[in-house]
């Protein structure tokens, strides 16, 4: 895991190193502290000791899947989760939203849309 030093903590889980780097660079421009993870196990370990402000995660990665999303929801109650997947369909989206994810994106993700959703989730109502 790698981090940058700022206030709001966004936990970014993506097994593709290039995609993770791109998203980290783009989102750190928003003034966020980015904690990176390459698989679901790293994410779950991080949430045991720390409470990120927001979680952005891929669905299909090592130690990923819907069971992972369900466990993540339990290990980080109240933390908004944004889910991304390249292998989604209406059923996958419905299942994810049913598990309590705050937002769902099909890949390829449009970075501008992702940034808008992150900003929305971080802005108090």
Which key features would you list for this structure?
single chain, about 120 residues, alpha/beta, 5 helices, about 20% strand, globular, disordered N terminus
Strand content: 15-25%
The radius of gyration is: 13 Å
Distance between the termini: 31 Å
Beta-strand segment tally: 5
Mean pLDDT: 92
How many DSSP H or I helices? 5
Unreliable parts: 1-6
Percentage of helical residues? 40-55%
Order of strands, widest sheet: 2-1-3-4-5
SSE class: alpha/beta
Give a short account of the largest sheet: 5 strands, parallel
The H-and-E topology, N to C, reads as EHEHEHEHEH
Shape: globular
The gist of it:
The protein is an alpha/beta fold. The chain has helices at 17-28, 40-49, 66-75, 90-98, 111-122; strands at residues 9-13, 33-37, 54-58, 81-85, 103-106.
Characterization of the model:
The protein has helices at residues 17-28, 40-49, 66-75, 90-98, 111-122; strands at 9-13, 33-37, 54-58, 81-85, 103-106. It starts with 8 loop residues before the first strand and ends with a helix. The relative contact order is 0.17. Helix 2 packs parallel to helix 3. It is an alpha/beta fold and 125 residues long. It is globular, with a radius of gyration of 13 Å. It has a five-stranded parallel β-sheet with strand order 2-1-3-4-5, sandwiched between helices. It contains five helices and five strands, in the order βαβαβαβαβα.
Which secondary structure elements does this structure contain, and how are they paired or packed?
Blueprint: E1 9-13, H1 17-28, E2 33-37, H2 40-49, E3 54-58, H3 66-75, E4 81-85, H4 90-98, E5 103-106, H5 111-122
Parallel strand pairs: 1-2, 1-3, 3-4, 4-5
Helix pairs in contact: 2-3
């Amino acid at each position: 895991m790698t981090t940058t030093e700022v206030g709001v903590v966004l936990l970014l889980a993506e097994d593709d190193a290039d995609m993770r780097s791109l998203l980290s660079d783009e989102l750190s421009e928003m003034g966020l502290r980015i904690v990176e993870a390459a698989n679901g196990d790293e994410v779950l370990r991080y949430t045991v000791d720390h409470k990120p402000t927001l979680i952005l995660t891929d669905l299909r990665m090592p130690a990923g899947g819907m069971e992972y999303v369900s466990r993540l929801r339990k290990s980080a109650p109240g933390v908004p989760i944004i889910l991304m997947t390249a292998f989604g369909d209406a059923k996958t989206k419905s299942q994810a939203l049913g598990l309590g994810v705050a937002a769902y994106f099909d890949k390829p993700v449009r970075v501008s849309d992702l940034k808008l959703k992150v900003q929305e989730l971080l802005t108090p109502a």
